[in-house]
Amino acid sequence: MRFHIASPEEIKKGLTTDVYFTRTKEILERKGIRVRALAEVTSGRLPRNWGWAVLCGVEEVASLFEGLPVDVYSLPEGTIFSPQDARGMRVPLLTIEGIYTDYCLYETPMLGMLCHASGVATMAARIRKQAWGKLLIAFGIRRAHPALSPMLDRATYIGGFDGVSSLLGAKTIGKEPMGTMPHALIICFGDQAKAWKAFDEIMPAGVPRVALVDTYYDEKAEAVLALQTLGEKLHGVRLDTPASRKGDFTELLREVRWELDLRGGKHVKIILSGGIDDSNIKELSEAGADGFGVGTSITNAPVLDLAMDLVEVEGRPAAKRGKLGGRKKVWRCQACLTTLVRLPGEMEPSCPKCGGKMEEILKPLVLGGKPCSLPSVDEIREYVLSQLQKIP
User: Fold this and answer.
1) How distant is the alpha carbon of residue 360 from its chain centre?
2) Does domain 132-299 have CATH number 3.40.50.300?
3) What span, in angstroms and rounded, lies between the C-alpha atoms of 22 and 388?
4) Please, are residues 310 and 100 in contact by the beta-carbon 8 Å criterion?
5) Could you report the per-residue pLDDT of 324-345, keeping only the tens digit for each?
6) Which pLDDT belongs to residue 241?
7) According to CATH, where is 3.20.20.70 located in the chain?
8) What radius of gyration do the chain's Cα atoms show?
9) CB neighbour list of residue 280: distance below 8 Å, 6 or more residues apart
């Protein structure tokens, strides 16, 4: 094995599970125990005291269970949720029903898909919320195993980013890759202006001319030089690695904006990258940045703490301590996003917060091993953005 990754075939065979599931399957089968069981996935406390998270990775889960004799229901991918409903009840995010030994090997990979992608999508959404209307590009694949780049970029795009830098990630979401230029290009030329001119000469017209302006000189000086070099062709300037500059980066940003405007460069966008996260992006946005390349904070976002538990066996409620047994319905108010978990026989509730109409949001994902119709990645992204506007 040249790369330490599991193939899709190995995942589908259950080879990425924990050993105690293979032992459980063997014991149950040898004892002739075939029980129909209902399992549900719920969330524990969210990382860093987050109040909400974005459910992501659902499409991969559908592929994981394709061909298995199970029924899977899930909140729609991109749903913004809190671990507990308005009454403090734990919210089922996804349910699986079938003969337990038919699906027990898939708990581990399923949780991995959901926990990781949801963490990335949540951080992306948090950053989008703080920088509403600004250009956001995912620059983070160098901080993770390359095999994960399509998943990481898809989750980041779903969370509200405008584009991604990786070739395969962009293909996954059906977009063109987005990016600027590295310091290495400028260093190879040994001259900023020569590198910028070469970029303009060789790159297709559809590629924005965004000059990296912090290689040799002060950012202000290089930004002015880039404007003098490319003039009206200059779409933007990128200021990278702000942590390496010991001063006030917001003040530097204002200075660059002023010097460009002073010289007729009001059309030039200012793009920031390096050390951007949900704690500083709002301040930088308000200081005048037009866009951001965000990497490490997205790719290395904390994973969610999700768990799968059996809640019903052969039609009878069954759950371990600390979990709620039995089937449940999940109701949601689309106006204010309030959620309620109710018993199947209870009447349709009204929203306890705004009095609005609520609807069931656990939707079929896989029925009898056949995946149901799934939304496009753009539809999921728009769903996330529409919900973000309702969050204070």
Assistant:
1) 24
2) no
3) 41
4) yes
5) 999 999 999 999 999 999 999 8
6) 66
7) 132-299
8) 24
9) none
